[in-house]
Specification:
alpha+beta; seven-stranded mixed sheet; six-stranded antiparallel sheet
Length: 459
């Protein structure tokens, strides 16, 4: 590894993330793959705990590399163990379906298991590259990995709403095809097995690079088969395809400690940050919503019926404030009324009903001008009229309520509006969240530090 300079594009066989497996599939059952989704659930639950710790420790490693140019060895061993665990589960399940031997519950390498992952420990890492390699330099590889893992289809569904017939990615699709062939032919096609190993190797190389474990840029090359490199590139010793395995210092107890600490840190950070953010949303004692623009070509804008009732209302809500301001600076009326009274008043009036959806969808109700000016109607629990920002403050009462905003000088209105509420318990709750979050953050960091220091060994 180099301490500075551009990414290294070394010889294919020398890439420091070594992903290997038996050269042929381990005679998997023709039917067991149908239920492996169930059998692998315990490993899935464990990985759901390990990966937050992996990400948090990678952040710690980022700052360590930025300051010292070195990847802390204890963190390195843990993160390699998480990648190794993930690879074994993928090899067993729908990443390859290469074996029916159940993966071991350990971060350490298991010499008897047919799938292995090792990463060469870098003595020095570039303090400049660490700032850009995980998000900028690796972007082309992220696009490839997104196709292989199905992230492209899932992102497309989230952004366009289009449902895809298959969102599991190319790797899982090929593994399922291998399973179908196993089911009917009773054999695993060697070419498909080699291809799946190569695709998984690509993903794991990118994961190792993005996790800052090496400065060597992942090759844009599909190294198929169990060894991880073509025979012609395997070096002087054709039998050696992975580095010597260093015994992992991560026992079960230390792993549990660092995972629990990481979860405490993440939870504490969320509580403390959430409490601070919610405190900033308070304005004059009101927890205030973001400002929204409302508009109509008619004579009024009204909300749908808002139901307020229950013990939570009586004990948890104080005052409600609605504010609105016409963008043209003209006079504006705003009022709060019971839903039935508002419906009677707006009957036959050209107005717009806000449906609550953020992106369009408001409902236009055709009609004429109101027969009675809003300020003369006696239906309002609270109201205000005038130029500039108008505010209505009322005590929260049980019932079904509607907020109505109307221009004072004819049809057409474009205004900004927000809603605020006072919650008597809110200041104490946010303060408690901040304090509890800080305690969890400190205790989690301490637990992780103890676990990491206890695993420190020769580098």
């Amino acid at each position: 590894m180099t301490a500075s300079g551009p990414p290294s594009y070394g010889a294919p066989a020398s890439y420091p993330v070594h992903v290997s497996a038996d050269p042929v599939a381990d005679r998997p059952s023709s039917w067991l793959w149908l239920v492996k989704w169930l059998l692998v659930i315990p490993h899935g639950l464990v990985l759901m705990l390990l990966w937050p710790a992996f990400l948090l420790l990678t952040v710690v490693a980022f700052f360590a590399i930025l300051v010292t140019g070195r990847y802390p060895r204890a963190i390195f061993d843990f993160n390699v163990g998480v990648l190794r665990w993930t690879w074994r589960v993928g090899y067993y399940a729908y990443g390859v379906l290469g074996t029916d031997r159940y993966p071991p519950f350990t971060l350490r390498d298991d010499p008897g298991y047919p799938a292995h992952l090792e990463v060469e420990y870098p003595q020095r890492l570039s303090r400049g590259l660490v700032l850009v390699k995980w998000w900028l330099l690796v972007l082309p590889h992220y696009l490839v990995v997104a196709v292989l893992t199905g992230a492209v289809a899932r992102a497309a569904r989230e952004t366009t709403g289009v449902e895809w017939a298959w969102e599991g990615g190319l790797v899982a699709l090929l593994a399922v095809i291998a399973g179908v062939i196993l089911l009917f032919a009773g054999r695993y096609p060697q070419g498909l097995y080699d291809l799946l190993l190569g695709l998984n190797r690509w993903v794991l190389r990118v994961a190792g690079y993005a996790a800052l474990m090496t400065d060597a840029y992942p090759p844009f090359r599909l190294d198929q088969g169990g060894s991880g490199a073509p025979a012609a590139l395997a070096g002087t010793d054709p039998l050696r395809t992975t580095p010597a395995v260093r015994p992992s210092p991560w026992s079960a107890g230390r792993t549990v400690a660092v995972v629990a600490g990481a979860l405490a840190v993440v939870t504490g950070l969320g509580l403390a940050t959430g409490g601070l953010v919610l405190q900033t949303w308070r304005e004059d004692g009101y927890l205030t919503s973001p400002t929204r623009t409302v508009q109509t070509d008619g004579y009024a804008v009204a909300t749908e019926s808002l139901e307020l009732r229950g013990v939570a209302l009586e004990q948890g809500v104080g005052e409600i404030r609605v504010r609105a301001e016409a963008l043209d600076g003209g006079e504006l009326f705003i009022g709060i009324a019971e839903a039935e009274d508002a419906a009677v008043y707006l009957a036959g009036v050209d107005h717009t009903v806000l449906t609550g959806r953020l992106m369009g969808g408001d409902r236009h109700v055709p009609g004429d001008a109101p027969r009675t000016p809003p300020e003369d109607a006696d239906i309002w629990l609270g109201s205000a009229i005038g130029p500039g920002r108008q505010a209505v403050e009322v005590t929260a009462e049980p019932g079904d309520w509607v907020v109505v905003a109307m221009p004072a000088d004819g049809p057409g209105l474009v205004a900004t509006a927000d809603v605020g509420v006072t919650l008597p318990w809110f200041p104490q709750a946010t303060a408690t969240a901040i304090v509890l979050g800080l305690l969890l953050l400190l205790s989690g960091a301490a637990a992780m530090a103890v676990a990491l220091n206890s695993t420190r060994g020769p580098e």
